[in-house]
Amino acid sequence: MKKLISSLIVLFLLISCKNEISKNDDSIQREPNSFAIIIHGGAGGVTRENHSKEQQKAYSEKLQEALNAGYLVLEKGGISLDAVQAAIMIMEDSPLFNAGKGAVYNSEGNQEMDASIMDGSNLNCGAVAGVNHIKNPILAARIVMDSTSHVLLSGKGAEILMKKNGLVMVDSSYFFTEKRFNQLRKMQGKEQTLLDHTSYIENENLIDDHKFGTVGAVAIDKKGNIAAGTSTGGMTNKKYGRIGDSPIIGSGTYANNLTCGISATGTGEYFMKTVAAHEVSNLIQYKKMSPKEALHEVLFNQIGALGGEGGMILLDKHGNVYWDFNSKGMFRGYKKSNGENLVEMFEINSEN
Ligand code: ASP
């Protein structure tokens, strides 16, 4: 009977809350020892028509695997930083996403990856940019945070440090996927960057199929500490040396126990111009906006108004999870210690 009642409560929550997935109420304190994780695998033109049943299944299964990996860390009493890292590593190792294996190519035909991680309990953070021999860039971001006095290391210097720290280093061919390479081929010679998975029709007009395969995770552990992380290959045909929002603390990633943790995906330059993740946190902290309002304000009234596209996931200090995007869809999911577990990809209003 007890089980039935709690299942009904969970069902009610899932049906009644769309982008406000959990109830946001400051008077509701976090359940002691509760924990949660939320992830994304990129936003954009993620529609039912664009994805075969097999593709939907492959993405759902990989997202669930990433959630489970992070959840397991939290369930065992591990810290949120380790949960974020575990979830992101699963997605970095999968060619489905634009991070680690399967990262997109720059205009020179190389893959340059960026990643960042942040600890909301003390604002410690670390990031790497422009690396292409580190199998899991999120681990490199963690090492920058834990073992240097810096926040962001790039290129060769970052790779030398990671080698010294015993990270798995790979030949850049490890990251190759035919699909991403073909995307570059189509773009080479054009003064235009291509967002991950964007497709062209014959007359070379963009079809509305934008997707950003960046990956990210935010977790809160049993102690109530929040962590956030993001990992990406950036944008196809980006200039050699271009760095996006994902490794920029405050733009693509932010965590603060006073408010929330956030990971973003989308046209990075706009998330940098608006310092998007930090802006959302500030709106919650100082303007007393709800997370739902703050996400909407930044994604639609700031980023959208400038012409940017993408989405963000957010986990607040009470363990409530939220997401929003101004694109058609976003690969996303969450899992909470109260039994809630959801993986979705399409428009907020077309779910279920
Ligand atoms: N935000 C990433 C970048 O601009 C791209 C993405 O989200 O896919 O590098």
Helix and strand arrangement:
Elements: H1 2-16, E1 36-44, H2 53-75, H3 80-92, E2 113-119, E3 125-131, H4 137-147, E4 152-154, H5 155-164, H6 178-187, E5 215-220, E6 226-232, E7 253-255, E8 260-266, H7 268-273, H8 276-285, H9 291-306, E9 310-316, E10 321-325, E11 329-336, E12 341-344
Parallel strand pairs: 3-4
Antiparallel strand pairs: 1-5, 1-11, 2-3, 2-6, 5-6, 7-8, 8-9, 9-10, 11-12
Helix pairs in contact: 2-3, 3-4, 8-9
This protein binds aspartic acid.
Compose a concise summary of this entry:
With 352 residues, this protein is an alpha+beta fold. The chain has nine helices and twelve strands.
Protein described:
The chain is an alpha+beta fold. It has one domain: Glutamine Phosphoribosylpyrophosphate, subunit 1, domain 1 (4-Layer Sandwich). The protein has helices at 2-16, 53-75, 80-92, 137-147, 155-164, 178-187, 268-273, 276-285, 291-306; strands at 36-44, 113-119, 125-131, 152-154, 215-220, 226-232, 253-255, 260-266, 310-316, 321-325, 329-336, 341-344. Helix 2 runs antiparallel to helix 3 and helix 3 (80-92) runs antiparallel to helix 4. The protein is globular, with a radius of gyration of 19 Å. The two termini are 26 Å apart. Aspartic acid binds at residues 42, 98, 196, 212-214, 232, 234-235, 244-246, 252, 265-266, 268.
